[in-house]
Amino acid sequence: MQKLIDRTKDAAMKDLSNPADLASRGTFESWDVDNCAEIYAVDQALKDGVKIEDMFIRTVRFSDGAFADLCKNCQRTFSEFFKAME
Fold first, then answer.
1. Angle at 58 between CA 57 and CA 61, to 5 degrees
2. Mean pLDDT of successive 10-residue segments in the chain (86 residues)?
C-alpha cells in the first residue's frame, strides 16, 4: 500500500496541472494522500488477508453519510487496484 501512496505523491508533484501549493506537498487535495479513510481501510483489509478481488471501495461523506465520489488522491492511488478488479 505504501508504494501506491508514494506513487500518488510523486504523481502530484510532477503533474503540471496540479496547483503549486498542492504539488509541493505531494497531494491532489488539501489533505495528505494517506489521510483518507479509504486508504486506511484497504491497507487494513490487505493486512488481514482480504483478496483485492473480494474488496469493494465506496466513499461516504462524513458530514451526512451520503455516498460520494473518490477524492483525486484516492482515484490516483487506487487506479491500479481498480484495473486488478476488472
1. 145
2. 94 97 97 94 95 87 94 92 66
